[in-house]
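Q: What residues go here?
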């Protein structure tokens, strides 16, 4: 509908209009302003792809409204002020709402609220008004119809008059009752409005699952909820674990007025929320507050903003509603919003900015993360100047270029993200982002297996990930230097007392003794723990080196394949792949590690410092009774921890395998064993035994 040139022009006009100091506009600016508003409505409602924030839209809308109020003759039938809603997203069957779903007027400060209250008092002739104040849920708006106590229909807001029929999807939301006893209140048919949400935890889990699958995460729970409602597979909708708050009864048709209980329809909004709660809906009964007079309302909404981050779900403001339903009726509505309610919007968590540069940071495990440096922009009370942009694929998927205008969002405790770039605003001066081929810190070549999304620096001598590397090296499952710990690693590094992994064995204890918080005893403990670690089994050292894809089990396999750790410098990728459970991915990584000159020198240095690189235990423990036997554990064991059980196998001369194959002798099965058990049953040579049977095999118990 709008081509690139028109888009750029309209966006330029938008910016000019927004920066204009004077609130009013001239006669010749009215029609261009309407065009601007129509354009942004199309972007928002039809394309689902807004170019400006809600606040910016409201500012422009109010300019037009003000002009039309002062010049009633200038109002045109197609002015954006003259209709309830806008375009529709096609797909689901269209249905008409019983009562048009109007929007709410927005307010951003105390003056706006005072103004709203003044108008309501003037119109009603009352001195003070009782308000019901509740959260403004940040999700996707829905409307439900119950007829004869049964959920008959669920729909999206659509253009306010017509929405998409999504009843089957709504039925997947557990907090929406399929039937509700409205008849007990003499109500035959009712239309209710509410908001569908994905709570913060489910949103995080959902995004993590996406990231694991290599799919870029969603920017906010609102998009996740709105998108989920449009899925055409109800099972998938159910997996999304949506929730719904129902907060408004827009229509009731009376049935039998004479109810057995004598209950009647409430006459206040808070009474309606109680009624909904009573009938099994999740209404904001516990989140709402009834307050007499606007002063208390202002105090409450400002207080509530501070609690925003502590809630399980996202809210973007508060809604202030006149509590008396008769008074609501008297106040009525404009074509756009009711006069008896107003939204108080919290500080925006979205903002537009410019992508100025991309820096590449080297983190733990050597992962190179691109970090976007952006024109500082306030987002939800925090000024954002840089944002992680994950990896190379993400840059491509979001179509990011240096110089791009970008939309930023910071959703609750979620770290800021780039929602999108505005390709249509490009001038041609934007530049491609080039991912470095060598480490930005140590200049060694970066390494990335095909199936991985992240480039890494695998040079252990790289200063950037050295600290994290040392922390991993001394950790419990690695060299197990108990008295070291993360805090000491950081402290010694900062003081220049520890520069690299070999430095662990060269600590200047005379200087450490003088540090605050270090007594003679703690220094002695540290000294002996470091000394003891020199003789840790080889697999611990291999694991401690932090080689990508080498966990404890693979480290054990690797350790049993050599007499000395540096033997791996002679191994080809093919030879590595011959080892149990070593696939292409692991082999590539191990090969790369041991063929790196810096890593080789590091290992020699460790050996000179007394660290055992020889495989003392090659051939396994003898005399334990499990020699030559291999084991694998699956499911939850009742008596032993998995690590204890594996330790027992090894201390009795047996071997732990990483997966089910014909090389396996015993599969020890705990509760809820899964695919490993199924696979083992197909290989007749594998003995499937219980934990009890395993324990009986051990001479040591
Ligand atoms: S009342 C006729 N109450 O905010 C008035 N709306 O920006 C009906 N919203 O379209 C709306 N929380 O989708 C109301 N507690 C709440 C709300 C709420 C979120 C949404 C609703 C509305 C939008 C307006």
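A:
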């Amino acid at each position: 509908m709008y081509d690139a040139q028109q888009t750029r022009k309209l966006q330029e006009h938008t910016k000019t209009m927004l920066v204009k100091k004077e609130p009013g506009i001239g006669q010749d600016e009215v029609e261009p302003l309407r065009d601007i508003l129509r354009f942004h409505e199309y972007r928002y409602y039809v394309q689902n792809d807004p170019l400006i924030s809600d606040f910016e839209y409201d500012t422009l809308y109010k300019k037009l409204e003000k002009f039309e109020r002062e010049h009633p003759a200038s109002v045109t039938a197609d002015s954006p002020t003259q209709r309830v809603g806008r375009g529709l997203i096609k797909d689901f069957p269209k249905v008409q709402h019983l009562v048009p779903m109007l929007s709410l007027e927005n307010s951003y400060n105390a003056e706006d609220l005072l103004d709203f209250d003044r108008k309501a008092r003037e119109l009603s002739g009352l001195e003070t008004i009782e308000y019901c104040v509740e959260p403004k849920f940040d999700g996707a708006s829905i409307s439900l119809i119950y007829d004869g106590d049964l959920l008959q229909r669920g729909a999206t807001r659509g253009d306010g008059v017509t929405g998409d029929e999504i009843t089957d999807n709504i039925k997947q939301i557990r907090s929406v009752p399929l039937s509700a006893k409205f008849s007990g209140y003499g109500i035959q048919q009712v239309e209710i409005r509410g908001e569908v949400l994905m709570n913060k935890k489910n949103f995080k889990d959902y995004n993590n699952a996406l990231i694991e699958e290599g799919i870029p995460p969603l920017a906010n729970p609102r998009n996740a909820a709105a998108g989920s409602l449009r899925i055409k597979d109800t099972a998938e909708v159910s997996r999304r674990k949506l929730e719904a708050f129902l907060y408004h009864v827009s229509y009731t048709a009376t049935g039998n007025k004479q109810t057995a209980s004598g209950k009647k329809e409430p006459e206040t909004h808070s009474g309606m929320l109680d009624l909904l709660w009573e009938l099994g809906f999740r209404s904001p009964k516990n989140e709402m507050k009834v307050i007499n007079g606007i002063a208390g309302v202002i105090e409450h909404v400002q207080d509530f903003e501070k609690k925003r981050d502590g809630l399980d779900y996202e809210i973007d403001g508060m809604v202030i509603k006149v509590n008396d339903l008769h008074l609501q009726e008297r106040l009525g509505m404009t074509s756009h919003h009711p006069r008896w309610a107003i939204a108080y919007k919290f500080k925006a968590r979205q903002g537009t900015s410019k992508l100025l540069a991309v820096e590449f940071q080297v983190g733990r495990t050597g992962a190179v993360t691109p970090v976007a440096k952006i024109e500082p922009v306030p987002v939800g009370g925090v000024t954002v100047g840089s944002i992680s942009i994950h990896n190379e694929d993400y840059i491509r998927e979001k179509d990011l270029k240096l110089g791009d205008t970008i939309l930023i969002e910071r959703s609750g405790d979620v770290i800021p993200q780039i929602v999108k770039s505005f390709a249509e605003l490009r001038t041609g001066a934007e530049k491609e982002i080039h991912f470095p081929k060598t480490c930005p810190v140590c200049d060694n070549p970066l390494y990335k297996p095909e199936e991985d999304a992240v480039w890494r620096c695998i040079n252990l001598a790289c200063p950037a990930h050295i600290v994290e590397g040392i922390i991993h090296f001394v950790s419990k499952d690695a060299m197990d230097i108990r008295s070291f710990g993360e805090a000491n690693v950081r402290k010694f590094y900062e003081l220049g007392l520890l520069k690299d992994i070999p430095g662990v064995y060269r600590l200047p204890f005379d200087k450490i003794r003088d540090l605050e918080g270090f007594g003679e005893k703690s220094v002695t403990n540290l000294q002996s723990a470091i000394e003891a670690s020199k003789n840790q089994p080889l697999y611990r050292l291999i694991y401690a080196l932090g080689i990508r894809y080498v966990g404890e089990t693979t480290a054990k396999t690797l350790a049993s394949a050599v007499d000395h750790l540096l033997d791996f410098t002679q191994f080809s990728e093919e030879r590595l792949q011959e080892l149990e459970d070593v696939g292409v991915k692991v082999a590539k990584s191990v090969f790369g590690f041991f063929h790196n000159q810096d890593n080789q020198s590091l290992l020699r240095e460790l050996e000179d410092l007394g660290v055992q690189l020889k495989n003392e235990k090659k051939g396994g423990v003898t005399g334990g009774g499990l020699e030559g036997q291999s084991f694998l554990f699956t499911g939850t064991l009742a008596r032993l921890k998995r690590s204890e059980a594996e330790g027992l196998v090894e201390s009795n001369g047996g071997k732990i395998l990483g997966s089910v194959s014909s090389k396996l002798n015993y599969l020890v099965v705990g509760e809820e064993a899964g695919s490993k058990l199924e696979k083992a049953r197909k290989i007749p040579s594998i003995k499937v035994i219980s934990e009890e049977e395993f324990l009986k095999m051990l001479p040591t118990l």
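A: Context that may help when evaluating the design: The first helix runs from residue 4 to 19. Residues 102-104, 134, 136-137, 141, 193, 195, 247-248, 319, 338, 341, 343 surround 2-(butylsulfanyl)adenosine (CB under 6 Å).
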